[in-house]
Amino acid sequence: MLLCLGGAGALRMGSNLVLSFRAMSLFHMLVLAPDRPVCQRLWEVLPDVACVWWPSQWARQRPSSLYNDNFPRQALALYEARKVLLERLVLDHGLNVLHLDGDTVWFADPYPLFKSAFKDRQLVFQQDNPFANAGVFYVQNVRRGDGAAWVLEELNRRVARFTYNPESVRELPHSDWARAPFFANADEQANLNDIIASSLSGQVSFAGGVEFPEARFKERFAPRKCWSRPSANGCDGVAEARRKMADGAWARMLTDGRLGCRRAPSRAPSPH
For the Nucleotide-diphospho-sugar transferase domain, which residue ranges apply (predicted)? Predict the structure, then answer.
């Protein structure tokens, strides 16, 4: 199991999670924390738990974007790091991994279900209507080159792309209108659900997780000067975002059952 703690404030919930699983005779856990002090605090009550931190990942400099600038830096670093670590555990080391947010509560051992009803499924997600939850899911029997491996790899590619190259959102099929300031949604759950849609449709889509939010959240997070002075330097993209959000046909194309895939020529593999 990979347990992900966002900081010292999550220690009580994280400790409860470890103890709950130990009461179910589940002991193979790895805790990912943002820094050494969090692990040291955890070791005060659970000295034998495996806890790691990743200083270089947290220290990475992220360029300015509406997404990078408006959400907690530590949280964004955790979301990025845990998916990179997950990919390495699964594809480099051949492990099955239950990926967990630190604030979850479990009342029963999930493994009998994973190994019976879901034994032929490589990816098992908690349903977060209408989405797959990017914080609680199980990965099993995944090997490089198969469809489920593509999902894990593609998620890290997209998170890195929009985190470190926010301007690349303009290269997407339905976002060539975009101008700075870019929102460039690198959220793991939004991108995960686009990737699942890509697998189901067989066509690569960024529609619901990146292209639609580029307009929607640009309106919400843009500098105030862009509303009082739309022609101000760096505000071109905000006016266009407002026009897109007023275009019902454009919004429906990206958010209804068509998945915004019509102009995406590349094909995506399908996991099971």
Answer: 28-131
